[in-house]
Structures are given as C-alpha cells and as structure tokens.
Amino acid sequence: MINNSKTDRFILFINKFILLLVVLIVTIPLFYVLLGSFQQPSVLATRGLSFNPEHWTLDGYRRIFNDGSIMRGFANSMLYAGGFTVVSVGLTILAGYSLSVDGLVGKKFFMIFFLFTMFFNGGMIPTYLLVRELGLINTPWAIILPGAIGVWNIILARTYFKGLPNELKEAARIDGASDFKIFLKIILPLSKPIIFVLALYAFIGQWNAYFQAMIYLEDRSLYPLQLVLREILIQNEVQPGMIADQLARAEMQRIAEMIKYSSIVISSLPLLIMYPFFQKYFEKGVMVGSLK
C-alpha cells in the first residue's frame, strides 16, 4: 500500500472533487431533460421536477410518434450517419496508412496539400455549385459525400499507423505477402482502436448535422430526424399575436414544451446506446494516435 503525504492526499481530494463537479455538471441537465420529457409542462414550469405519477404524461412522445415523418426521419438519419461513417472511415484509413508508408512517392506534397485544405476552402456557395453540377442535389449522396474526408482524422490515423511495429510488415513481406494483404491481414486487425474512434467521430458529427440537409434536400421524405424535429418544433411555436384565443395559445405552448424535451431524448438515444460499446477503444485510440 502506498503511503501518500498530506500534500498528495490534498491534491487527490481536489482532483476527485473537480471530477465529481464535472460529472454533476454533465449528468444533472441530462437527468432534468429525461424526467422533464415525462412531466406535464405546467407542473414543470411551476413546481419543477415532480415524482408524483399524477404529474407524469406521455403526450409528448405520443405526438412525436403519431407523426409518421419521425420514423422516416430516424431511418434517414441512420442511413446518412451510417453511410457517412463507412465512407469517411474507409477513405481516412486508406489515406492515413498510405501517408505512413516511408517509401511513398510525393508524400510530402500530399501532406502539404491536405494541410492547406485545413485553413482554406471554397466556401458554401462554390461547394453547393459543385454538388449541384455532380447531380447530387436531393439525393442521400449530397449528405454522405461532402465532408467525408477530414484532414485532422487523416493525421490522427497516420500517426497511429506510424506507431505500429515495422517488423510485422517486414516479416510478412519475407513470407511473400503483398502490400494489400499486409494492410488487410495485419494492419487492420491491429487498428481497431483508431477505427472505432474515427467511426465515433464521424457518426456523432453526421447524426447531429442538419444544415447540409437544409441546403441540399428538397424532398421532405429525405429529411433526417434533426430536420424533421426542427420543423415540428417550429410548427408548434407560439408567435406573438398569432393566436387571439389565450387558451389556445396556452395549449400550443404546452404542446411545444412537451415536444422539445421528448425530441431531445429521442435524438440522443442512438448516441447514448452506441457510446458504451465504443468507450473501451476510445481512450486508447485517441492517446496512441496523438503521441507522435
């Protein structure tokens, strides 16, 4: 057993206190939103959270799921986020591994070219014109392809691959393995941490995105969940002077409040379910990929 000095114990106490404070800052709003999605808005506004079953309701969830566009938007978001993740991770891994190979011709040029794009880009209008000329407007590819490659992710993957032992590749070459077979049979099995980290980054980023859908999609049946929920919230917002009847305004405001909390819970569920399965790879992948 390690005998810590008073200074060490004090520092450990401060660290634990700060960690506890961070946990509370993160979990209390989540707990409030989750319980608030089941509360009657009038009770939530006047009394706060109530554990009395009489003050609980499922009206917010009923209203959301009674709208068929919700499930369609959920399926679209899964398609966009899943497709974006596969394309992004696949291209990032290939680019990162290629740039980690010492004998790659033009490696310095490609690195400078990639780094240049981190600081300078064409902007929204040229990007829209390019997507339109490629015939991607109003298709899922308009959401999946633009932005699928991130230079920072390529650098992260390249750093991870450079940290793998060269002896493994040399031994495989002696046995007659080709570069593709080395990548497929040796490199990929050893790259689970960085692959899961990149997949988590890509999925979360695309799942929470809605601006691209607003620009590139015109068909409402292609809208992702975030855009569908946004429209539902806007439809139930009460504008000043919009309704003369005060009772009707109060009812609309009550419905809007219920939908807000319920929509946050629904849109967060996939991420909350997915993260525990990725967590064991997340810390290792980030740390190893950022050492060099």
From TrEMBL:
PROSITE patterns reported in the protein's UniProt record: ABC_TM1
GO biological process: transmembrane transport
Main location: membrane
Stored Pfam families: BPD_transp_1
One GO cellular component, as annotated: plasma membrane
Membrane topology recorded in Swiss-Prot or TrEMBL: Multi-pass membrane protein
InterPro entries xrefs: MetI-like, MetI-like_sf
Identification of the protein by name: Sugar ABC transporter permease
Organism: Alkalihalobacillus alcalophilus ATCC 27647 = CGMCC 1.3604
